[in-house]
Amino acid sequence: MENTQNVSEKKVGKIDKFFGISKMGSTVKTEIVAGLVTFMTMIYIVLVNPAMFADLGYKFVDGVPVKTELNGLLYNGVFIATALSAAIGTVLIGLLAKLPLAQATGMGLNAYFVYTVCGFGMSNGLSYANALVFILIDGIVFLLLTVTGLRRQIFNAIPDCVKTAIPAGIGLFIAFIGLQNAGIVVKNDSTCVSMISLNLLGGATYSSVFPIMVTFAGLIAIAVLSHKNVKGAILWGILGSAVLYYALAALGLAWGDEACKSIFAGITFDNPFTAFKDFGEISFGKVFTEGFDFSGYLSNHSSAQLILTLVTAAFAFCLVDMFDTIGTLYGACARGNLLDENGNVPNMDREMLSDAIATCTGAVLGTSTVTTFVESSSGIAEGGKTGLTSIVVALGFIVVMFLSPIAKLVPTYATAPALIYVGVLMMNCVTKVDWLSPAKALPAFITIAMMAFTYNISFGIGLGLISYTLIQIFTGEFKKKDITTAIIGLVFGAMFFLTH
User: Fold this and answer.
1) Sign of the CA dihedral 363, 311, 291, 146?
2) How far apart are CA 475 and CA 469, in angstroms?
3) Per-residue pLDDT reduced to its tens digit, 150-199
4) Residue 194, H or E segment
5) What are the strands, taking DSSP E only, across 342-389?
């Protein structure tokens, strides 16, 4: 028994030494809990991303989309591609950069891939395999930028007022995601967004209200537990919210509520190995076997149109991916006090190399751009400081490939409180912005506001850089060090006018 304990302690000691856990003021237990939290807040991507790609399995008949067999095949194939690419990319960050960050298929870029580049139902755009070529180009360009050091120079060109605002902007952005996931913030024709009605006398029902209450209860629970310094507060909040969700749904079921009945009726346990079969036939390697065959596109378009599409689409993927990664990387590390004495991200080149390799890997596996996920901040808020957190997240994605039905049991109403609470934690950096200086306050505000209002991290950074450059020019304070910033601003401007 004693020998077994000694062996166990030695293994823990090796893990501690490799990742520098004690050196960073953390523990193995804390890192594992942080990894679980990050995974729980990211798990939605393995459900949302394949559902989006499955739309490419429609064909149009007299303008009406009709589901084909390809719909289900793409869902299964991209499900495995999403989970596997996330696992590979996250392992790379954990082992190479040793940072508590995670990667997965980026939201926003996947929508651009499916609905703009391909064209819904493949009726007007490029094929699924053709579009994967752009993702491969994106990853290769990132590799070149990382190896040459240009990507770090681009990061260093971001002015301090914009850098300081990035964490707050990301915080507001992910809180907005959480509010949407919970169904609290909904679309509105007149004001674009609004809060869902909770008026039980005006049409709201038990089944539409109790999930919202679950999210609020989870949010309050996380805040209370955090205030009392309970370890794993966010994870306990997620698990507690999930239990409460099903308990309240069961009450509704007992009362005969049809919506609550559908919640339990929708729980299925399909054979997970079917997805692996479809992955091998539909997604894996399609970028090479079919991706470079543009004959289908050229049958309805000219060569000039193909070249223009290649340039503009690849440009958009690269630029958005780059600044999403840079923004998330800086914001998450700033929130966890992981920046070095000069305010830079440690092992940044290795993290960016991991990101580039993951994007190339994603293209080969069959999914759109793999990028560093903003939800990584949830694990960092839980105390994650090293690459062990990333390894735990990666293991979660590996397991979920075989347990997809169980993964679906965690409702978004349970993970939403974690995103909202992390948004709260990331707002503290606004105190470092010089709000009394218009030349610094405006770029900072635009960066924060536009990240959330445009639902895009890179757009916030881009508009912040453009406003900063214009202010420097018109106030006569434009200096040599601002040239790189201005060039990046021009690139963003070109993207806005040519591709967005």
Assistant:
1) negative
2) 10
3) 777 777 788 889 888 888 887 888 788 889 888 898 888 788 888 998 88
4) strand 192-195
5) 370-372
